Amino acid sequence: MYLEVSHATKRIGPDEVLRNVTFSLEKGTVCSLIGSNGAGKSMLMKAISGLIFLTDGSVAVDGKAIGRDISFPPNLGAMIERPGLVPQDTGWQNLRELALIRGRIGDPEIEDAMKRTGIYDAANKKFRKYSMGMKQRLGIAAAIMEKPDLLILDDPFNALDDDGCHMVQQIIHEEKERGALIILAGHEAEDLESISDIILMMKNGQVTDRRILNRNQDKTN
Fold first, then answer.
1. What gap in Å lies between CA 87 and CA 126, rounded to an integer?
2. Over 90: is that where the pLDDT of 163 sits?
3. Which domain holds residue 88?
4. Does 175 share its domain with 142?
5. Which of 42, 88, 95, 188 sits a CA distance of 20 to 30 A from 19?
């Protein structure tokens, strides 16, 4: 299994925001986390991304434990909660600065990601002047531009019109076909079930139900 989440538990003060979450997923799978605000979706995504430390349990990516063997998944693209980009920089500058961190891609890959997300025409516009939908598109571009093995998108359809939603669906299909493991989050199963292989229902920090929508992708434990 590429991703293994084992008894993941996170306590913040007296609150248990993740409770004994266990599942595993293979590449080429789209898994959606579904639940209301406070269900633990974003916290679980942060744990998988290495952005928080678990109180108990573990997350392993490609056999390496996050926080023990490695700090972060080695080939991760993520947009969690909202795109965290620099307001005074242009869209292009923001992506270029992110690309420089690992030095894996150059201008052609940045251009391709912006075109795939329909934001290339605003490449030279400052991020602070972007609409909410444009910010969402740029955040998705940042997540996909390095062609990650693990792609995490929190509420990917937020602030997007119908064309934007179709764009996200197409990108998810393309990234799955490329072999990436894709983890999405949303509030309603109906919004994501058409593009998901597996749905994990969450409430109060727990996985309360598993739905296998594509039997060929039955890769959870």
1. 7
2. yes
3. 83-147
4. no
5. 188
Condensed to tens digits (0 to 9), the pLDDT of residues 15-36 reads: 999 999 999 999 999 999 999 9
Q: Say how far apart CA 182 and CA 184 lie, in whole Å.
A: 7
pTM: 0.95
Q: Which secondary-structure segment (H or E) carries 171?
A: helix 162-178
Overall domain count for the chain: 2
Q: Return d(Cα 120, Cα 91) in angstroms, integer.
A: 9
Strand order across the beta sheet in which 206-212 lies: 76-79, 150-154, 181-186, 30-34, 198-203, 206-212
CATH number at residue 186: 3.40.50.300
Cα torsion angle, 108, 142, 219, 213, sign: negative
Question: Letter for the amino acid at 161?
Answer: D
